[in-house]
Design a protein that fits this description.
Chain B: One of its GO terms (molecular function) is ATP binding. Chain B: InterPro entries: AAA+_ATPase, ABC_transporter-like_ATP-bd, ABC_transporter-like_CS, ABC_transporter_ATP-binding, P-loop_NTPase. Chain B: One of its GO terms (biological process) is response to antibiotic. The complex is a heterodimer. Chain A is mainly α. Chain A is built from 10 helices and no strands. In chain A, helix 3 packs antiparallel against helix 5. Chain B is 31% helix and 28% strand. Chain B has 2 domains: 215 residues, Rossmann fold (3-Layer(aba) Sandwich), CATH 3.40.50.300; 63 residues, 2-Layer Sandwich (Alpha-Beta Plaits), CATH 3.30.70.100. Classes of the chains: A mainly alpha, B alpha/beta. Chains A and B meet through helix 1, helix 3 and helix 4 of A and helix 2 and helix 3 of B.
Chain lengths: 259, 302
């Protein structure tokens, strides 16, 4: 049966591909559990310990759950953008998914774009879930500067995605991509102060954490109002991180191989 | 106008010449084979035909269009099944086909396509749970979902078990019978001999010969052999009197005759005249394997 239709628009191809990629993500138990649900589960779990819900002087009079909430967010977003994204893209290249798509009128760049869109949406979902549940369950105030928080989250996620695509671009195969991305993930968590609070990190690491993706300090400052001793003003932090995102994206675009 | 016309195609990767002055044309409705050992330049040739790679020199035309300049148009007309192109593990058969159908102007009915390829019951099965043969069927389906005028199948049956290979061969014939011209890239002799109307034998980036399977066999070794069992009182030398017969030998009951032309008819008419009842009469002729070795000096599957 032939149904002669108009030329398919690139937008409709992108939407179809994104819908398929979203469906595929829902079938990845690890990405769903660790990327989207883990931050909330972890924070709620830690919040179940009464001592972590008491204001403490070492957190500047805040509670542990207040200061750690942004860290939980980074934990999940990092999994999605720096681990799931590059290993998916590298496996698509290794399996020839991108090559096969290049035999159709739709460029494989559409698949890459769709994958980035789906990962951004999942990261946003993870953030909403965390902010809402920590507010409703643990009384963690929603971000005190919502606009700055949203900007910080958007730029932070974008910079993580750019780094993720860069890993996919330079990794020769899916195995190498997952190794590289794990190393990158750990590094970002360390500098971001997820393992150790910023105030016990060596000074240069703490400063670095102000501007390395995904901007843990900025998320913290715009959420709980605790600047964590950041030296740079928020907008400068944001601008530097956007610069990192653009540089990583430009490099990734130059180096990315479709086969 | 030929469906595909390749003239003096050249393609190098750095120092290595992958395709060296290859010319051929594919006519409407045929199954055209590109046969050669791994690394002979077969895949590079079809990648140039599909517009996936630019040629260094020479010209390629698909239905009168340039695969690089008229990229989008050619992609609507040419279906490609690539060697070792897999799909995401958790993608379902039906989802893959529906997605690819949405990429084209006039896609086929995906339900009917799955039906005709015998995987209609796998519509909701994830790619990782399909057998090798089913994956290849899906791959064929993806190449056919655009309703192409010509389909390229690259190493379609590599890694399949013998039954799945034979089933896949039937599918390829069905595709041709439905009016689609087929280009079949393979390194399997039996596959080329069984399916192809014409074969380009490719070796080290060049076309060593281009002919029908029978033509390729005949041009390398026209000699035939006929063997049969006959009673001891039959004198095999009466066969040698026929002009078609080059030699006739006997060992025990077994008689072996070599010659050219219509050797079988010559032998049977002599046997009939002599009232000899021959048993186990066989014609042995060289096959494409022998032809390939004669043309290229090596075994294709080595």
């Amino acid at each position: 049966m032939n149904t002669d239709t108009e030329r398919r628009s690139p937008v409709s191809a992108l939407l179809r591909t994104a819908a398929t990629e979203a469906r595929l993500l829902t079938r990845e138990p690890v990405a769903i559990c660790v990327g989207i649900l883990l931050p909330t589960v972890l924070l709620l779990g830690l919040g179940a310990l009464p001592v972590l819900r008491e204001p403490a002087p070492e957190f500047g009079g805040l509670r542990f759950v207040d200061t750690w909430a942004p860290m939980a967010l980074i934990l999940g977003t990092g999994i999605l953008c720096v681990q799931h994204l590059p290993s998916t893209l590298a496996s698509y290249r290794e399996k020839g998914v991108l090559r096969r798509m290049s035999t159709t009128p739709v460029h494989p760049g559409v698949l890459l774009t769709a994958q980035i869109g789906v990962v951004s949406a999942a990261a946003t979902l993870s953030a909403l879930l965390l902010v809402l549940s920590s507010w409703l369950v643990l009384d963690v105030e929603p971000p005190s500067r919502p606009l700055l928080f949203t900007a910080a989250f958007a730029v932070g996620t974008a910079s993580l995605i750019a780094l993720g695509v860069l890993v996919a671009a330079v990794a020769p195969g899916a195995t190498a991509a997952s190794g590289l991305s794990t190393a990158l993930y750990m590094l970002l968590l360390l500098v971001g102060g997820v393992f150790l609070p910023q105030n016990v990190l060596p000074g240069f690491l703490a400063r670095l954490g102000e501007v390395t993706p995904p901007g843990a300090q900025l998320l913290l400052a715009s959420w709980s109002g605790d600047s964590g001793g950041a030296v740079l003003p928020p907008l400068v932090q944001l601008a530097i991180m956007a610069g990192v995102a653009l540089a990583a994206a430009a490099l990734a675009a130059r180096l990315f191989r479709w086969e | 106008m030929p469906i595909i016309d390749v003239r003096n195609l050249h393609k190098r990767y750095g120092e290595k010449t992958a395709v060296d002055d290859v010319s051929f044309s594919v006519e409407e409705g045929e199954i055209f084979g590109i046969l050669g050992p791994n690394g002979a330049g077969k895949t590079t040739t079809v990648e140039c035909v599909a517009g996936m790679r630019p040629a260094d020199a020479g010209s390629v035309s698909v239905l009168g269009r340039d695969p690089r300049r008229d990229r989008d148009e050619v992609r609507e007309l040419l279906g490609v099944q690539l060697q070792e192109a897999r799909l995401p593990d958790r993608l379902r058969t039906g989802e893959a086909l529906d997605l690819y159908a949405s990429f084209y102007r006039s896609p086929a009915d995906t339900g009917r396509l799955l039906e005709s390829l015998g995987i209609a019951d796998k519509r909701d099965t994830q790619y990782r749970r399909l057998s090798g043969g089913q994956k290849q069927r899906l791959s064929i389906a993806l190449a056919l979902v655009e309703n192409p005028r010509v389909a390229v199948f690259d190493e379609l049956t590599t890694g399949l078990n013998p039954q799945a290979r034979r089933d896949t061969w039937d599918l390829v014939e069905n595709v041709r019978d439905s009016g689609v011209t087929v280009v079949l890239v393979t390194h399997f002799m039996d596959e080329a001999e069984r399916l192809c109307d014409r074969i380009a034998v490719v070796d080290s980036g060049r076309i060593a010969a281009l002919d029908t399977p029978a033509g390729l066999v005949a041009r390398t070794d026209p000699e035939q052999r006929v063997t049969f069992r006959a009673p001891r009182d039959f004198d095999e030398q009466v066969l040698a009197a026929r002009p078609e017969v080059a030699s006739a030998h006997r060992s025990g009951h077994q008689v072996r005759v070599t010659g050219r032309g219509n050797l079988l008819h010559a032998v049977t008419s002599v046997l009939a005249r002599e009232h000899v009842v021959a048993e186990d009469l066989r014609v042995e002729r060289s096959n494409l394997d022998d032809a390939f070795v004669a043309l290229t000096g090596r075994s294709p599957e080595a």
